[in-house]
Amino acid sequence: MSRIRARFWDPAGKRYGIPTYPWRMSPPHLMTLRQLTAAGLRPGGQGVQAQVLWRSRRYGAPGVRAAYLYDVRFALPKRTATPRQRDALAKANAARRTCPDCGRDAGYVLPRHLGICLDCAGDCAA
């Protein structure tokens, strides 16, 4: 194991407070939020069980980065929206696509800085 990976190896949680693993070395029953979502699960009220730490040289976020892990054994299935919730979301999205000037559905979410569709904004500029 390299020095950097050994620096982040703390499965007992003595150094970092919670169990910590290097990149790609966490146990298979621990998953990130994105992995849980892809599997159709949610954390279900459990707190962070462990973390993965790695060094990053990415511009804007240099240093050590972290990903928090949740135990898949305690995860619950994702909730599904009720028909009324889906209807409310459809109405809200339709309102975001409807131009207040011409009153038609633009087919895309209107830019907030304009407040109107691009066709109407082009007419105003000309």
Please give a structural write-up:
It is a single chain. With 126 residues, the chain is an alpha+beta fold. 27% of the residues lie in helices and 20% in strands. The chain has four helices and six strands, in the order αββαββββαα. The protein has a four-stranded mixed sheet. Strands 3-6 form a two-stranded antiparallel ribbon. Strand 4 and strand 5 form a beta hairpin. The N and C termini lie far apart (65 Å).
What are the key terms here?
126 residues, alpha+beta, 4-stranded mixed β-sheet, two-stranded antiparallel sheet, 4 helices, 20% strand
Brief summary of the model shown:
The chain has 126 residues and is an alpha+beta fold.
- The low-confidence parts are none
Described by the principal axes of the CA atoms, the overall outline is elongated
Q: Please give the share of residues in helix.
A: 25-40%
SS strand fraction:
15-25%
Q: How are the strands of the largest sheet arranged?
A: 1-4-5-2
Structural class: alpha+beta
Oligomer: single chain
Q: What gap, in angstroms, lies between the N and C termini?
A: 65 Å
Please state the CA-atom Rg, rounded to the nearest Å: 23 Å
For the secondary structure, the number of strands is 6
Q: What is the averaged pLDDT score?
A: 91
Topology pattern, helix = H, strand = E: HEEHEEEEHH
Largest sheet: 4 strands, mixed
Counting DSSP H or I runs of 4 or more residues, the number of helices is 4
